[in-house]
Amino acid sequence: MAKARQHTALSFLVALAAAAVAVLPANAGPARSSKPSWRLMDYHQTACFSRNVTTSWYGVWIRGTWTHSIQVGAARLPGGGTYASEGSIPPGSSTGDYSLGYVRVDLRPDTPLGTYTARLWATDGSTKERVPITLEVESKCGY
Q1: Model confidence pTM above 0.70
Q2: Cα–Cα 20 to 30 A to 98, which of 72, 85, 87, 106?
Q3: What is the DSSP string of 55-115?
Q4: Category of 67 on φ-ψ map: left (φ > 0), alpha (ψ -120 to 50) or beta
C-alpha cells in the first residue's frame, strides 16, 4: 500500500512538472526587463531644407547606460530621402546632456515644399527608441 501511494505521488509530481513545462513559451530564456536602461532624448530638432540646402545633421542624445553598441539612423523620410550615420555608439553611459553622434539627412532638391515629421531612431539590438525630427522644406531657408 505504501508503494502504491509513492507511485501515485510520483505520478502526480511528474504530471505537474509536465504541465508546468507545457505552459512555458517555446522561446523562454532569461527574463528581460520591460524598461530599457537607456532612452533616446527628444530635443525637438528641426532643420530647413530647400533646393540649395539638401543636407542637415541631427544630434543623437542618449540618457542611461548600455552594454552593447547602439546603431542610429532616420526613418519616414520624404520620397528619395536618405540618411547616413557616423557609425555606432560604443557601450557606455551618458546623462543625455551631450550629443554622442549625428545622423545626416539628405533630401532631393525637388522634394515638395512642406513640413515633414520623420523619426530619429537608435537601437542596441534589443531595445529600439524613436523620436520625431522635423524637416521643413521651404523655397528658401532663413540663412
Answers
A1: yes
A2: 106
A3: EEEEEE-EEEEESS-BEEEEESPPTT-EEEES-PBPSEEEESSS--EEEEEE--TTPPSEE
A4: alpha
Q: How far is CA 126 from the centre of its chain?
A: 8
The fold of the 38-137 domain, in CATH, is Immunoglobulin-like (2.60.40)
The answer to whether 69 and 124 have CB atoms below 8 angstroms apart is: yes
The tens digit of pLDDT for each residue in 56-67 reads 999 999 999 999
The type of residue at 86 is E
Q: How confident is the model at residue 142 (pLDDT cuts 50, 70, 90)?
A: confident
The domain locations on the chain are 38-137
Close Cβ partners of 103 (under 8 Å, ≥ 6 residues apart)? 57, 58, 60, 72, 73, 74, 83, 84, 85, 120
Q: What are phi and psi of 84, to 5 degrees?
A: -145, 145
Q: What is the pLDDT of residue 12?
A: 42
3-state secondary structure (DSSP) of residue 137:
strand
